[in-house]
Amino acid sequence: xxxxxxxxxxxxxxxxxxxxxxxxxxxxxxxxxxxxxxxxxxxxxxxxxxxxxxxxxxxxxxxxxxxxxxxxxxxxxxxxxxxxxxxxxxxxxxxxxxxxxxxxxxxxxxxxxxxxxxxxxxxxxxxxxxxxxxxxxxxxxxxxxxxxxxxxxxxxxxxxxxxxxxxxxxxxxxxxxxxxxxxxxxxxxxxxxxxxxxxxxxxxxxxxxxxxxxxxxxxxxxxxxxxxxxxxxxxxxxxxxxxxxxxxxxxxxxxxxxxxxxxxxxxxxxxxxxxxxxxxxxxxxxxxxxxxx
Length: 293
Fold this sequence. Notes:
globular, 293 residues, two-stranded antiparallel ribbon, 12 helices
């Protein structure tokens, strides 16, 4: 009942970008301000740092014109610092679906938002009940996350939205035959292999968590790729040992040839060399609070 009241109120009023006065639906306003999200836009389009929340001020480079990406960053930050994450979880539930799709209107926005949500919810769910990790298959497929009124799982976010409707156990070569309507609406337009170096599933072999933002997403994903492969890949002149995720999702990387090209691009394997590939064993030991500095 409380959710219905809040949703009704949100439909009738949105906060004005000039001082927080209510504006009736249909009147002109620059962009919607979700409940509890500080509007940092002034009438001239500039950011007013005085109105930013303490968490926002501590995270440089937020996107005030895209409050959903900002909200996802603050959620990850709260999961790191031990602040109350329930307030964020409630906000995610109340986002109008059309607002979700209108704000996440490019692959950059989608990747920043959904990577942050995946990492944040993994931390929150496992800190609340680490025993869930004993059955990892069930943990990742259980639809325990509500976004814009839609129940979804970590698998839905990773394989449905971020990997553009790929099946989980096909090495990335098989797409879902009948993805749902919402998934097709929310998913990215093209798979980006770099997400595999940004998603943290709670295991010791996972890449560390960063606060992903739209404006510098490409640089952040490039850095995550370089850092993870630089720390995990081992070339001995004949073979190269690489993380298991490159095997699980090898089609996302362009197959084995694509993996070698990536390793050459990152300076791990010399140009013109075609070493054998050995996929390392993944350490599934639960390992939380693994954030970048």
